[in-house]
Amino acid sequence: MDVMSRETLDKLHGRPASQSCGLVDFDKAEVRPGIVNGTWILVVRGDAPCANMRIELVPLIYIQRPDYWEIEVVGCVAGPVCLPQTKPFTEALPLDGVLGTAGIEVVGASRRQQISVP
After folding, report:
1. Measured on CA atoms in the order 85, 86, 88, 89, is the torsion positive or negative?
2. SS3 (DSSP) at 71
3. pLDDT (tens digit, 9 = 90+) per residue, 74-114?
4. Cβ-count burial of 74 within 10 angstroms (0-12 exposed, 13-18 middle, 19+ buried)?
5. Nearest-CA neighbor of 90 among 34, 43, 25, 35?
6. 8-35: string of b/e by CB count within 10 Å (b at 16+)?
């Protein structure tokens, strides 16, 4: 299963990295069944290090379907400074189109968690 061409992926990886976003640690990640049979939703919880940080679950881009599809927990600061107060977050992501052959792997700043999905 081709997800993206090698040429397009190389163009994306050749761009400069963002300076206002980065990986964020998470406390808990779990996969729950969706409303429709055979669908799944990833739910991730944790504490953002900045009060003005937006958290997103961002699937990586692959040429071929991996065993475990990596999904990054990314925080972006909205504004010129990080307001140094933690805030809890709960983010959800439907896993349609971003499931590896065995499941997913949630990637935070200092740890990873593989979750098998039927």
Report:
1. positive
2. strand
3. 999 977 888 989 999 999 999 999 999 999 999 999 999 99
4. buried
5. 43
6. eeeeeeeeeeeeebbebebeebebeeee
Residues 104, 32 contacting (CB under 8 angstroms) = no
The tokens for 13 are: 């990886």
Question: Rounded distance, CA 62 to CA 9, Å?
Answer: 8
Tokens 């959800």 sit at which residue?
Answer: 92
**What would the two tokens of residue 1 be?**
């299963």
For tokens 């739910």, what's the residue?
43
Per-residue model confidence as pLDDT tens digits over 14-65: 556 566 799 999 999 999 999 999 999 999 999 999 999 999 999 999 989 9
